[in-house]
Structures are given as C-alpha cells and as structure tokens.
Amino acid sequence: ATSDISYIRFHGRNKENWFKKGITTAERFKYLYSQEELLGWLPDIEKVARRSRKTFIMFNNCYQDYAIRNASQLALMMRDLEHYLRRRETQLRSP
Questions:
Q1: Name one Pfam family in it (predicted).
Q2: Could you read off the pLDDT of 20-67 as tens digits, one per residue?
Q3: pTM for the full predicted model
C-alpha cells in the first residue's frame, strides 16, 4: 500500500477473451472466482488493510451476477475470519 486509502479490484481471469476483439465488456470479464481463489486472497487483503486507513474492494467481473456473487462470498469469508480472530485473541488472553 502506498497511500492511506487502498483499492483492490477483481477483474476476473478470463485469459481466453481478454484481448479478443468484437466482444462485449461482460464477455471479457466473464469469470467467476472459486471459493479457493478468494480464500487465497485473504492474507494479501489483510496486509493491505493493515497498512491503509481505508480499503475498498471491487469486483468487476461483470458477467450476469458474477460480481455480486463473488463480493458476497468474500464478505462472508472476511466476516467469518474476523470472528475467528477475535475469538482466538480472547482465548489467548484468558488464563
């Protein structure tokens, strides 16, 4: 992070259509991240968030409802991780 505000943008990984001419924007960004891919991003997101005052995450894989689905998945993962870390911290402080 190089600023007190960070921005992470997920475009998808549709290599097949990325440079293809004559297709729609939605077709270019037609990619649904798997749960494993999103879980893999959590450590990097945490690092960026720790260095920033504010962190924004945007999904731009705008085919059908892919962005909404992936954003919801990631939000749940982050919430669950936060609950786990708080619980763990409380347990570590308890005698």
A1: DUF72
A2: 899 888 888 899 999 999 999 999 999 998 899 999 999 999 899 999
A3: 0.79
Q: Determine phi and psi for 11, rounding to 5 degrees.
A: -95, -15
Q: Print the domain residue range for 49.
A: 5-93
Beta carbons within 8 Å of 48's beta carbon, 6+ residues apart = 1, 6, 8, 55
3-state secondary structure of 37: helix
Cα-flanking dihedrals φ and ψ of residue 28, to 5°? -65, -40
Contact 51, 44 (CB under 8 A): no
Total domains in the chain come to: 1
